[in-house]
Specification:
7-stranded mixed beta sheet, 17% strand, alpha/beta, binds nicotinamide-adenine-dinucleotide
């Protein structure tokens, strides 16, 4: 089942509970706009190469659309559509005044030089600058894009429209970015884990639990660092090259330093080797998939030994696996809530840019904590009240807000 079909299934299980009706359901599952642009650039060796860039704008009933830009060879329209709709539900579940969008370029990002990445990014902006903007659609980083990519987007967009830092978030801190943005998604994962344990952990807190984290990029490494700082025991981490496991707990700052030096967590000397399949089946209390989508599927869901899954990545659990996990009694904290810390601080960055202001990091972190805990309490209320899984409850909360805005605006 594709990522898009999975998202649609999740949407439908919630819309059934809400009795949403076909008319509004069709409206909310249809993207407002989909764009594919040709991105032809000169490579460092003088060859011309053509890439395809996508932007899908899913819904703007609650405000300008918002969502990351991903550079990955598996990017296609289907994946971007699914991620764009997830953004609509994500911004809504944490009650931000945004809609949802997503973009990406199909490319082998790891083979591109920095100059090639810059040329591709600027050319992509040439193709989409008319349909993005601070009050239209605000991109952000995702896989293989980061603050530098956002700086190029801001600069290229500003050449057409004048100085516009609020057109994109996740910028470098010294170029109108927000303090706290880099760690925000990982911090949100930490808060989501804490809240889920408080609600369903039978008295066990973060410091009593073991964690296994898949992916050691922005989300996975920050989640691991913050969990470790709060006394949680991180027993395994992996990335695309492999991983490391130590049942006594890894020294996460040591792993971070090792990964910085070598480019991977694989081969960390104070742990035993751990592949990605081993990681997903590791004995732990909380599993944090923070790499790719679809990694927990019907073939391996039965092997999961964690009691909680906190979805740092977008769509890491397939529809079929979700069913298996529910029957096993695993509490799945869904992506649209669990990884919403990044978009929440992106919203703070947008507000700071529009106000030409800078907030101290502790203000950013405090406001993030307030938003994430308030959202969890709302989701939990629906889950417990309607006796549905947290994922269905999160979709019910999110869809309810978008549907209410839509019906007040009028569909036609
Ligand atoms: P990233 O590029 O910084 O890191 C990705 C990590 O995943 C790397 O460690 C990479 O080695 C690892 N990885 C890649 N392929 C893998 C594989 N086959 N098996 C195991 N590990 C693999 O990306 P990121 O920003 O940390 O994003 C990770 C996930 O979190 C994505 O699903 C993204 O959509 C989601 N997300 C990111 C943010 C954000 O603010 N960065 C916000 C919300 C959701």
């Amino acid at each position: 089942m594709s990522a898009l079909e999975t998202t649609l299934r999740y949407f439908k299980s919630a819309s059934k509970v809400m009795d949403l009706g076909d008319r509004i359901e069709k409206f909310l599952t249809t993207p407002r706009r989909e764009i594919s642009v040709e991105v032809t650039v000169e490579m460092d060796d003088g060859r011309l190469e053509t890439f395809v860039g996508y932007r899908v704008q899913h819904n703007n009933a609650r405000g300008p659309m918002k969502g990351g830009i991903r550079y990955h060879h598996l990017v296609d329209l289907d994946e971007v559509r699914s991620l764009a709709s997830l953004m609509t539900w994500k911004t809504s579940v944490v009650d931000l005044p945004f809609g949802g969008a997503k973009g990406g370029i199909s490319c082998h990002a790891e083979t591109l030089s920095e100059r090639e990445q810059e040329r591709i990014t600027r050319k992509f902006v040439d193709g989409i600058h008319d349909v993005i903007g601070p009050y239209k659609d605000i991109p952000a980083p995702d896989m293989n894009t980061g603050p530098q990519t956002m700086a190029w987007i801001m600069d290229q967009y500003s050449k057409y429209h004048g100085f516009s830092p609020a057109v994109v978030t996740g910028k470098p801190v010294d170029l109108h970015g927000s303090l706290g943005r880099e760690a925000a998604t990982g911090r949100g994962v930490l808060i989501a884990a804490e809240e889920a344990l408080k609600a369903y952990g039978a008295g066990k807190g973060l410091a009593d639990c073991t964690f296994a984290v898949q992916g050691f990029g922005n989300v996975g490494s920050w989640a691991s660092r913050l969990i470790h700082e709060r006394g949680g025991k991180v027993v395994a981490v992996t990335d695309v090259k492999g991983g490391t496991r130590n049942p006594k707990g890894l020294d996460v700052s040591g792993v971070v330093a090792f990964a910085r030096r070598t480019g991977s967590v694989d081969g960390y000397p104070e742990g035993e080797p751990c592949g990605n399949d081993d990681l997903l089946a590791t004995k732990c209390d909380v599993l944090v998939p923070a790499a790719l989508d679809g990694v927990i599927h019907k073939g391996n869901a039965k092997d999961v030994r964690a009691k909680f899954i906190v979805e740092g990545a977008n769509g890491p659990v397939t529809w079929e696996a979700d069913e298996v996990l529910r029957k096993k009694g695993v509490v799945v904290v869904p992506d649209i809530y669990a990884n919403a810390g990044g978009v929440t601080v992106s919203y703070f960055e947008w507000v700071q840019n529009l106000q030409v202001d800078t907030w101290p990091e502790e203000v950013v972190n405090r406001r993030l904590h307030e938003r994430m805990t308030a959202a969890f309490s709302k989701i939990r209320g629906v889950a417990d009240g309607r006796k549905v899984p947290l994922r269905t409850a999160a979709f019910v909360v999110a869809i309810g807000r978008v549907a209410a805005a839509t019906s007040k605006l009028g569909i036609s």
